[in-house]
Amino acid sequence: SLWPSPMCCHFCEPGEEWPELDFSKEQYIAQDWITGTEYCSYMVCRNGEIKVACIYPVIDTIDGSSCVYFKSVEHQKIKEFLVKFAATYNLTGQFAFDHVDAGDHTYVFECNPRATSGIHLFHHTNWLTDAITDPMGPRRDAVVGWTRQLMPGMLMWDHKESNAHE
């Protein structure tokens, strides 16, 4: 298998010592811990052109990564990245990215080639359906300030372990 088993995954917090790892038996991927403001983006593309997109900060999460509250924001660096990435790779489909804005640079650290929670920001429109079914439709971005909160997620949310940033 190309992917390591879940048993070999370890997440180190900044300043934490690395565990003793046996590289002869397992494969590992290591990346720097980048401090900054975390954002997520979601888009639907057709032939390298974005049809619908949203960008939202990671504010409230269940486990440090699964958002339960969404608020659409403007982020020019992320928007420019999305446009360039979609065009460069002539994307068609649904794509989502996790980003960190470290001030001097915005980093991408994960890509999900599927629908993600960003779709919730389009719950009261037909824009998402149009983006998927209408090849000639216009580009539409979630309106800055649109919000959505997920009740099932909030029922599982425990404030004492929250990472709320606002």
Describe this structure in words.
- By secondary structure, the chain is α+β, with helices and mostly antiparallel strands.
- It is 16% helix and 26% strand.
- The protein has 3 helices and 7 strands; from the N terminus they run βββαββαββα.
- A 5-stranded mixed β-sheet has the order 5-4-1-2-6, with helices on both faces. A two-stranded antiparallel sheet has the order 3-7.
- The mean pLDDT is 80.
List the helices and strands and how they pair.
Elements: E1 37-46, E2 49-57, E3 69-71, H1 76-88, E4 93-101, E5 106-112, H2 127-133, E6 140-141, E7 147-149, H3 151-156
Parallel strand pairs: 2-6
Antiparallel strand pairs: 1-2, 1-4, 3-7, 4-5
Describe the structure using short key phrases:
166 residues, alpha+beta, two-stranded antiparallel ribbon, 16% helix, globular
Largest sheet data? 5 strands, mixed
User: Treating each run of at least 4 consecutive H or I residues as one helix, how many helices?
Assistant: 3
Mean pLDDT: 80
Proportion of beta-strand residues: 25-35%
| Largest sheet strand order | 5-4-1-2-6
Q: What would the principal axes of the Cα set say about the shape?
A: globular
Q: Which blocks of ≥5 consecutive residues have pLDDT under 50? A: none
Q: Give the ordered list of helices and strands.
A: EEEHEEHEEH
Pairing-aware structural class of the strands and helices?
A: alpha+beta
Q: What is the end-to-end distance?
A: 41 Å
Q: Considering DSSP H and I runs of 4 or more, what fraction of the residues is helical?
A: 10-25%
The count of β-strands is 7
Cα Rg: 18 Å
